[in-house]
Amino acid sequence: VETGPRTMAAAHDLEMEVMNLNMDRAMKEELEEEKMREDEGGKESFKNKKVHRIVSKWMLPEEVRRTYLERANCLPPPVFIISISIAELAVFIYYAVWKPQKQWITLDTGILESPFIYSPEKREEAWRFISYMLVHAGVQHILGNLIMQLILGIPLEMVHKGLRVGLVYLAGVIA
């Protein structure tokens, strides 16, 4: 493989061209975002749009970003995911703090006696098919679930609204 000054110059030129393309793409995105700001005429605050842009750049491929930015808004706010998260956290705190536990990483067997947990012997208690979603086995379990459902659930709920997200969430729990 040739590594002379010509090859190095060609590699440098290619690198500069890629940088210019990336800068052009970033400028184009900024212009599109500014146009969207002007088009909406103050419906949402600039900070709100900035959050949407950050989320869309982090989570979505470039070709669907604009659709997300057009559909995402905080009206109504993402209440479903936040409510479920608070309920899960409250149940966990009850079993981890108020019920005596030897350790928090994995909760003792007291959680297995909870009226929320699913138990095949108690199938006639139909609420257990849904309420088990509130029970978590330890700190790592609850933190992992909360982080994932807040990071993924809030943007989903901003686009698809609470009813759709709630139905899919509960369908997953029942399934």
From TrEMBL:
<comment type="similarity">
    <text>Belongs to the peptidase S54 family.</text>
</comment>
<dbReference type="InterPro" id="IPR051739">
    <property type="entry name" value="Rhomboid_IM_Serine_Proteases"/>
</dbReference>
<keyword id="KW-0472">Membrane</keyword>
<dbReference type="GO" id="GO:0004252">
    <property type="term" value="F:serine-type endopeptidase activity"/>
</dbReference>
<keyword id="KW-0812">Transmembrane</keyword>
<feature type="transmembrane region" description="Helical">
    <location>
        <begin position="129"/>
        <end position="154"/>
    </location>
</feature>
<dbReference type="InterPro" id="IPR035952">
    <property type="entry name" value="Rhomboid-like_sf"/>
</dbReference>
<dbReference type="InterPro" id="IPR022764">
    <property type="entry name" value="Peptidase_S54_rhomboid_dom"/>
</dbReference>
<dbReference type="Pfam" id="PF01694">
    <property type="entry name" value="Rhomboid"/>
</dbReference>
<dbReference type="GO" id="GO:0016020">
    <property type="term" value="C:membrane"/>
</dbReference>
<protein>
    <recommendedName>
        <fullName>rhomboid protease</fullName>
        <ecNumber>3.4.21.105</ecNumber>
    </recommendedName>
</protein>
<feature type="transmembrane region" description="Helical">
    <location>
        <begin position="75"/>
        <end position="97"/>
    </location>
</feature>
<feature type="domain" description="Peptidase S54 rhomboid">
    <location>
        <begin position="124"/>
        <end position="174"/>
    </location>
</feature>
<keyword id="KW-1133">Transmembrane helix</keyword>
